[in-house]
């Protein structure tokens, strides 16, 4: 795939381009994003030169959640994830400066539980591979999402523990419907299959 991030590589029609920006402050051996790059499941995004495009940026601090309504833009512009320590993202109060480009559409993932060994059962503490797989699933590429995550620890479990939530989010179009589903699934006292 090897891409500068300025021109999406040709993909089969109906396939969402996936991009990754590695910030470099995560432990290399624990970095699922670097593994996705090595496996050529995502393209490196640097965002300079050539045709400017504006992917959907997965941003845990965005107000608007990702939903099926975002699929048209995802198909033409792609989805961009940032691989860095999410603890440090929280300390900064947002994503590192400049990583998404000025025209990126920022979207957070709906509430999901992590299945990776480091954060199993924790709400919204997904690793990079889980986040990208969740985005693919929500945008209609479910088999591809499952294939992408299949080689990672907890990959199969991710879709098991989030099965009810993903099924509920699947038909939602836009922020209001996703937020209503989140309240239904993750309100205090709701059984969401893990711990917060």
Keywords:
single chain; 196 residues; 5-stranded parallel beta sheet; 8 helices; globular; disordered C terminus
What would your notes on this structure say?
This protein has one domain (18-186). Helices cover 34% and strands 9% of the residues. It contains eight helices and five strands. It has a five-stranded parallel β-sheet. The protein is globular and about 40 Å long. It starts with 17 loop residues before the first strand and ends in a 10-residue tail after the last helix. The model is unreliable at 1-10, 89-98 and 192-196 (pLDDT under 50).
Beta strand %? 5-15%
Number of DSSP strand runs: 5
Please identify the oligomeric state: single chain
Profile the largest sheet: 5 strands, parallel
How far is the first residue's CA from the last residue's CA?
37 Å
Strand order of the largest sheet: 2-1-4-3-5
The chain-level structural class is alpha/beta
Overall pLDDT confidence: 80
Question: Low-confidence stretches at least 5 residues in length (pLDDT < 50)?
Answer: 1-10, 89-98, 192-196
How many separate domains make up the residues? 1
Helix-strand pattern:
EHEEHEHEHHHHH
